[in-house]
Amino acid sequence: MVGRMEGNDRGERIREAALRLFARHGYAAVSMRQIATEVGVQAGALYLYIPDKQTLLFDMMRSQMEELLAAWDELPAAGAPVARLEAFVRFHICYNLARPDAAFLGAMEMRNLEPENYRAVARLRDGYEAELAAILRDGAASGAMRVPDVRLATKAVLAMLNGVTGWYREGGRLSRERVERIYWNMVRRAVGA
Asked: Whole-structure pTM over 0.85, yes or no?
């Protein structure tokens, strides 16, 4: 049923409404009835497009991670580790600021996935983290960075980058470009590049 949902206009409206509601109120606090009201259909009609709320959450989180990985893969390789790290930092911020609700969902709602769904999304997330870890490992091996623990540094850098969507507001004091530049300088210093 999820496949039908992806190719259907109403199914896409359901996903968009659920994403907004989950980001605003949290997955656990949102009912199928609220999603239906947001879309303008009866609650029972949702089940023509999705089997249940858990499947909806899983589908959204899996899709978000697949799209993130695909977008990263489309970028040309930046060469030396420091240039690759800068590209990663700027990409991550830019990509997630363009999709703040999806970024919030990915960061905050893993805990609400059932075990099998959690493992599937975690594999995708781990693949993305591995991209950053490889950059840091290459930087340390070449002497361009000082990274005593690649795994810890990967988690720390991602935690810092993920936080941007929680506070950044379009039209605020800092432009996106300025935020990218400041964060790049903080990450660069944090890994001794």
From this structure: yes
